[in-house]
């Protein structure tokens, strides 16, 4: 039994890869649940890296559910968005017109019915669009970390109306890390320190090393299990963790940028992508790293500690890299690919607030994005 | 530098004990932080169990900060609310007029500027007022568990406009348990199971037993540390945990009441408050329980498990009592008085989402209440 619709959330989705498609499927399968709660999500447009499919009538209900299902199927099969044009009810814009059309849509809807611009891409290219949308009074929900890790001015602009902004899935996928930190800060409880293991890949690698396995073998196994990026150096560089650390540090009010973060890479620069192919790194580079990593694991173990790849955000600065930690701390106990975050504040001083769980995966990330969209519903009261 | 005020949150507080006074102090100390975010909390009234102090002009800024500070000091010193009358700007109503005045205030403000009725008492007496306030369009924030554990119809009425309702601090003080479960459900990820250790007192007792200490000694130590209620049977009965379990079960959509929860008490009924004084229980009752508890701890230990006092909410029902759990699970590893909750769903199927931290204390509970109040701000846009 559907409740009267209280809130209508018009959405334009940027990015239609694994997370974006999962989001659309979640929206479809949640229709009855959301109707029950008096909420309706209307998808008015979907963009991939080359074009934008947008509803003919922006004030309508947006794409019908059959078209959205077909869109997911088409993108999964590698077909372009243009393959949906024959269905009617939509228009296609290729870049750069696509970007202009997103801004136009934001302008038309921003001040009237409102619009949520959802970024599930993995590019820096959306920053301009997102900033323009914020200027036009739109809401923004991000799974894409990159817009929040650009210049500080961009971050500041994006969060300038903080209540119209959600980015839970940029750190720990669906884990309620950002929401919890925001709650704690809002209650006047000053967060003094955040320590986290925020890479499922590096979490897996470090706990396998603890069992005495060799670094090169563990990384290759992680790759074969699909835990790493196609080039594992994308994980081993620590840059993905550093982006999450930067987002958390900025959330705590630190006016810093990537260059202020001390990032330890798990391979030396002479083994980097500029100097060595992925194949060479996997076949001959990796094994040369075994000995030094083994020594560090052993040195930690002799002190009763374990080695973890963590981010550490304190008032004195922000660091990303290997740390020796007590075996019986929340981070030290971590096994497998779970993420874990420890938050220290006045209320959580001697023992931190700990949040742990799966911190990656398209399903989990998309679920976090959907929860973020719904969290904006009080800004979208139906006026009609 | 204060931002323009976007949201004004008028508040009437019921209950002025430890949590209520901490809340008022947090509101005062957060003034600059909230001003920065464009939010202003106006306290229009404060009630204790016998009377209500209310601002002369409901459309004003409410009590000034000096009066609120004095009010906290007066209540801490055991003075009645009437001692504030000489300050002016306020009126006093004794029960039952006080209750009627709260409803009148809700009627006046509910549909205009809105009102947040905050219940930091620990009584069933507020249920009627809260339901009337909901009927008048007010928002409700609860630290008081009891209104949510009455008849199912009362619960249903209180959450009938779910977005105007917050009750984070009823389970795990400031820990983001309710908010996380709500997020997960909203994203269409069905929660299948929640297992939690939700009593700091019983958490402490169970982890001390694991170290081979005697039950009677541990309970007496807990009492002397101020971890238990004046009569430790209030903790050992499991009823406080059962209330939290009921709230979580109802949040998952279970239409159940207290009588549907299987609650294991840690003392037999012949040692209950009706049969034995607190003094007798502490001096002679407790030691008679040592042997059976010791046997259960040992039996668990022989299987490599530990004994925990947990609540378990599944689709098949809701139980509260002792459970044998693996030593290396989130619950099994628990030491001291932290609370911990494991949430299982599609996204957190094999490994649960785990939230752990201090789950009691006036400061932490009041911080959770304040975060809840601020979370309602999008419903309170300043219209002027």
From TrEMBL, chains A, B:
Belongs to the homoserine dehydrogenase family. This is Homoserine dehydrogenase. Keywords: Amino-acid biosynthesis, Methionine biosynthesis, NADP, Oxidoreductase, Threonine biosynthesis. NADP(+) binds at residues 15-20. One of its GO terms (biological process) is methionine biosynthetic process. The lineage of its organism: Eukaryota, Viridiplantae, Streptophyta, Embryophyta, Tracheophyta. The active site is at residue 244. Its EC number is 1.1.1.3. It is an enzyme of class 1 (oxidoreductase). It comes from Oryza sativa subsp. japonica.
